[in-house]
Every structure is written in structure tokens, then in C-alpha cells.
Design a protein that fits this description.
The chain is of the alpha/beta class. The protein contains 10 helices and 13 strands. It has 2 domains: about 160 residues, D-Maltodextrin-Binding Protein, domain 2 (3-Layer(aba) Sandwich), CATH 3.40.190.10; about 100 residues, D-Maltodextrin-Binding Protein, domain 2 (3-Layer(aba) Sandwich), CATH 3.40.190. The longest helix is centred in the last third of the chain and has 17 residues.
């Protein structure tokens, strides 16, 4: 059995952003299993180990963002991807930052090798890309102005309202599915600030994205409607199942390696530690009931 040191955070900025060595974290995690994909067929894992890999990210705190001062990537998804790639033995890592709606086209055109900002299964996505095993979980929340002036009590109440979302997101897919025509944004900060400034009547957003916004904008005028239960069809196949990472369908060995690495990290406490570094908890390891 071998021990692999915990990941080293780093990132240099130059066109495509390249990860560079930095200080290692103090905590280490034991991986009981090591990569065993030598006879699996396609060359995607070997290519990544030999030539490096390009990860696609979108700015979306606390999931992923680029620190303006250090020019280093930060966030839950960066930490998880870096740890996965350490386990796989991939040393050369490049990052591409882009709007969320560009992630799937960038992957399919081979501009990137992995959608490293977490992504969820939907029927539309399953037709064109493949997914790793589960990484972690979070859910949706409807956000309105304080006091809920329109008296929104369900997802159906969003019909006919000015509702914001992120273009190409799970929220975007679901709102359109139930008959809501949303106002779509490229970034979460623009979306939530538009609601905060009264230009929208509601937003459907990731719960952890709203919590991060509320933490960094303490004088905001927003109210999350935690009491509204998430419909089963938004969780089961509607884009808010387990958070995963995505690859091209033909990159089977790379996908298998990602899946096994995440399983090892969930088992040895590494995923739990990353979540807790960003204010989440072990309840984010599984799908839990959303309304209190």
C-alpha cells in the first residue's frame, strides 16, 4: 500500500492558466487503492498522465473562482479536481475559464478535457457527454426580495414572474421545463445583484451559491425561501442530483479514473475535509431533504 500526499494548490495565469507548485496542505489522506486501468482500452488516461490535461471552469464561488491577488484557483471544485488528478498521477494541469454556457461546447471541441466545475445529469446532457461518479451534493433554492412581497409558495408560483437564472444551468433547464421564461445571466453575481436591486422578482439558484453571496454581501435585501420543498423531478433527473464532473463519451479510462478517485476520496474523508473547508458539512455527501 502506498500513501499519496494531499494536493498542492497552484495556478499561473497566461492565456490558458497553468497550475504551478505552492505550499502543500498539512493534512494527508491514505488512498487504499491506486489506478488500475492499464487494460481498459482507450488512451485518454495515459494521454493525461503523459501530456497533461485541460480543465474547464466558470467563476462561481464557492465552487470555483480565481483569486485576483494570488492568481490561483480556489474553491470546492478546484480542490477536488486537483486531488483527483494527484491520485491519477497527472502533473501538467491547465485551466480555461469561461461562461457556464460555453462548458459543453468547449469539451466537445477538445478545447478542454474535463468540465471541472461540477455538473449534473440531465436528459439533454446525457446525449452528448459522460459523467464521473458522484462527488458531493447541494440543492436549489428560490430567492426573492425580503418579505416575499409576491407571496411565492411553490415553484409553480414562478410562472409569469421575472425570474433570473444562469444560462445553460440546471435551474435554466428546469424553469423552462415547467413553463417559466427566465432572464438568463452569465454570472451568479450579476444575477443575484439584479434581484437585490429590484430588477428581478425571483431567482432560482444553487443553495451554496446564495449562502456565499449572503456571506459576502451582508447588507443584501434578499430572502431564501427554505420552506419551499424542491420537487422530486428537479432532483431526480432534473439537474440537481449528485454533483459530478464531465468528460467526452469516448474518454472511458479518464472517466473511470475520475470515478474511482472520487470514491476513494469519499471513503477516506478527503471530500468531507474539502467540503468543511468551505463551510459545508457531511450532509453534502448525500442527497438530503431540502425543506426543514
Amino acid at each position: 500500500m502506498r500513501r499519496s500526499d494531499r494536493f498542492i494548490l497552484a495556478l499561473g495565469l497566461a492565456g490558458s492558466l497553468v497550475a504551478l507548485p505552492a505550499l502543500a496542505q498539512q493534512q494527508t489522506f491514505f488512498n487504499e487503492s491506486q489506478p488500475m486501468f492499464d487494460n481498459c482500452g482507450d488512451p485518454s488516461l495515459v494521454k493525461a498522465q503523459k501530456d497533461g490535461i485541460t480543465l474547464g471552469f466558470s467563476v462561481n464561488p464557492p465552487e470555483a473562482w480565481l483569486d485576483e491577488q494570488s492568481k490561483q484557483a480556489k474553491g470546492i471544485d478546484w480542490d477536488m479536481n486537483k486531488a483527483v488528478l494527484d491520485w491519477m498521477g497527472v502533473k501538467n494541469i491547465k485551466l480555461e475559464w469561461m461562461p457556464w454556457e460555453s462548458q459543453v461546447p468547449a469539451l466537445l471541441s477538445k478545447r478542454t478535457d474535463v468540465i471541472a466545475g461540477n455538473i449534473h445529469h440531465t436528459a439533454e446532457r446525457d446525449k452528448v457527454i459522460s459523467f464521473s461518479g458522484p462527488a458531493y451534493w447541494y440543492g436549489p433554492v428560490i430567492v426573492v426580495s425580503k418579505g416575499n412581497p409576491l407571496g411565492i409558495k411553490s415553484y409553480d408560483d414562478l410562472k409569469g414572474k421575472q425570474v433570473g437564472d444562469i444560462s445553460g444551468s440546471a435551474a435554466d433547464f428546469y424553469l423552462r421545463k415547467i413553463g417559466v421564461t427566465p432572464t438568463s445571466f452569465k454570472t451568479e453575481i450579476d444575477e443575484l445583484q439584479s434581484l437585490n436591486q429590484g430588477r428581478l422578482q425571483a431567482v432560482l439558484e444553487d443553495d451554496l451559491v446564495y449562502l456565499e453571496f449572503a456571506k459576502t454581501n451582508q447588507n443584501h435585501n434578499l430572502e431564501p425561501l427554505w420552506s419551499i420543498p424542491a420537487p422530486a423531478d428537479i432532483i431526480n433527473g432534473g439537474g440537481y442530483g449528485m454533483a459530478r464532473f464531465a468528460m467526452r463519451k469516448e474518454d472511458c479510462t479518464l472517466r473511470s479514473a475520475y470515478t474511482q478517485a472520487l470514491a476513494e476520496m469519499r471513503a477516506n474523508g478527503h471530500v468531507s475535509a474539502i467540503l468543511k473547508n468551505y463551510g459545508l458539512s457531511d450532509r453534502n455527501l448525500v442527497m438530503y431533504k431540502l425543506n426543514p
